[in-house]
Amino acid sequence: MKLAQRDAVLLEETMGLAEIRGRSLWADARGRFIRNKAAVAGLVVLVLVALFAFFGQVLAQYEPQHVDFSLMGANAWRGVPSLETGHYFGVDSDGRDLFARTVQGTRISLLVGIVGALVAVVVGTLYGAVAGYVGGRTDQVMMRTVDILMSIPFMFVLILMLVIFGRSIFMLFLGIGLISWLDMSRIARGQTLSIKNKEFVEAAVATGVRPFTIILRHVVPNLAGIVIVYSTLLVPQMIIFESFISYLGLGVQEPMTSLGALINQGASQMNNGTLWMMGFPLFFFLITLFAFFFVGDGLRDALDPKDR
Amino acid sequence: MYVYILRRLAVAIPTILLLVIFSFALMYSAPGGPFNSERPLPAQVMANIEAKYGLDRPVMVQMADYVWGVVTRFDFGPSFQYTDRTVNDVIAQGFPVTLTYGFWSAVVAVIVGVSLGIAAALRHNSWLDYLAVGVTIGAQALPNFVMAPILVLLFTLWLGWLPGGGWAGGIVVNACDPRDSLCWSAFGGAIRLDYVIMPVIALSTSYMASIARITRSSMLEVMNSNFIRTARAKGLPMRRVIWRHALKPTLLPVISYLGPAFVGMITGSVVVDIAFSTGGIGQFFVNSAFNRDYSVIMGITILVGMLTIGFNLLVDILYAWIDPKIRY
């Protein structure tokens, strides 16, 4: 009798415990991510950079396109970064406020990176999942196509396209969208191949769910972890890609700007002792890239624990 | 093996053809012809120019002619902007320069990267390992167009050790002045060492870092494998274990990375050419992009595409040859 009572108490305690909520996969991952100091620091930096890019305009004393003619030719000594004149980061070689221009450039660079990663996530994941799930000849043809596309030096083709159809931000987005999904589709396919043989997919097939619905409902959600990790690592690649083209002067066009274009303009003024023109855009470029790399690494450790 | 090579060739050759046709179609669909300018030319003049470049023929004939010329004679046609030179002239002028520092960059990236990776793996969790990992992460966020201006700032403007750009005769000079200790003979021409250093550093660093990272993780895995334990257990000295047993399997992933690295280096050479005014092929490429000199851009794109596809083919064959486990 006494024993049964104790059992009842125990049972109650266990029930109580069960209500404390089990730890989900995502909660585990969050815990691992938060313990990773570099990753958290990266995330904080990213939030700050994003705030700077999207709300920095409020702090700027000048419009990014405002040309201060009185500074032209004299910006080496009168356009220096200072709080008094309101040019916090100084002016560029045309007498435009570098703070406002850096805000604008960071915004464009972030946008390009995020759009490229989004295209990769949507197109690449679906493409890879379909190829992996359907398999057979379809898979062969689809992945061979990816192989062929990957063996083409896309930077050159994209520049050819930019020259022929005119340099515009739309073409840039299109070009980045065209290549960004290739890697992702390979990763998604590889992962799908192992998911395909799991019991829950078998169960879905047995209950007569259509293949495409299985891909969307059962395969794609299980790709989420790896897709998140690789899209985080893809964003800096896309930023580098865009900055590369803008550095050559073939990317975004004036009056728009991006970090690559600003670095290029700053580098061309290096001889004149106006190092801030290169320094500030370079600083934002580097911290953004580092932050993305650290966050991506942290996410990989958090979501893909077998990799450690 | 031969079947495998043939099968890869069967994919590579149509890819190149596709690239040529695609580039041609792109150029043909360009709004406005290559000779449209602000002021419209008289109809007769226009017709004469078009006849000279063969633009008055049907599209299919033009395309077939172009593809035939590229494939059989390696002839990329005339430049549309400069009447006195052909695309082949441009390539002949710029390509040796790009090849020179591209070659040295590849050598530096592989040798330094592999040594650093192996050293880091052998001294796992020592200061050397941490240094290697740190360098790897740092170089990842320092693409070549960031490296280039920083190098110029450091070595040219502040230290004044190296010339900031130009090629100083470079490949054009055929023989070295014997008194010139910085001059090297290479590729049947001569190069001045001090002009090559910064382009090579700018181009090779990020690939060196990637190779170091790949080598390190590969070496760590290999050193923990059973056959290495056996080799050590039978009393082989460490040096022999590394050279005879560990090196080959360690280098396999490095070899498969060489394909993408090559593509990246060829792309990166554009930035190096611009940043250091080397007069390499990338500089012509970007200048032509600004001049809308379609035939030059197209020619260089196709050339680079051919090189890339060819090199990838080579790497795949090499890989299949070295790794007996590969299925082909």
From TrEMBL, chain A:
It holds the Pfam family BPD_transp_1. It is a multi-pass membrane protein. Its main location: membrane. Keywords: Cell inner membrane, Cell membrane, Membrane, Peptide transport, Protein transport, Transmembrane, Transmembrane helix, Transport. It comes from the Bacteria. Gene3D superfamilies: MetI-like. Residues 106-295 form the ABC transmembrane type-1 domain. GO terms for cellular component: plasma membrane. The chain crosses the membrane at residues 38-60, 108-134, 146-164, 170-188, 226-252, 273-295. InterPro entries: BP-dependent_transpt_permease (IPR050366), MetI-like (IPR000515), MetI-like_sf (IPR035906), OppC_N (IPR025966). The keyword Cell inner membrane applies. It is found in: Cell inner membrane; Cell membrane. One of its GO terms (biological process) is transmembrane transport. Belongs to the binding-protein-dependent transport system permease family. OppBC subfamily. This is Oligopeptide transport system permease protein OppC. The lineage of its organism: Bacteria, Pseudomonadati, Pseudomonadota, Alphaproteobacteria, Rhodobacterales.
From TrEMBL, chain B:
InterPro entries: BPD_transp_1_N, MetI-like, MetI-like_sf. It is a multi-pass membrane protein. Residues 95-315 form the ABC transmembrane type-1 domain. The keyword Transport applies. The chain crosses the membrane at residues 9-30, 101-122, 142-161, 195-214, 254-276, 296-322. Keywords: Cell membrane, Membrane, Transmembrane, Transmembrane helix, Transport. This is ABC transporter permease subunit. It holds the Pfam family BPD_transp_1. One of its GO terms (cellular component) is plasma membrane. It is found in: Cell membrane. Signal peptide: none annotated. SUPFAM superfamilies: MetI-like (SSF161098). Its main location: membrane. It comes from Histidinibacterium lentulum. Belongs to the binding-protein-dependent transport system permease family. Coiled coil: none annotated. One of its GO terms (biological process) is transmembrane transport. The keyword Membrane applies.
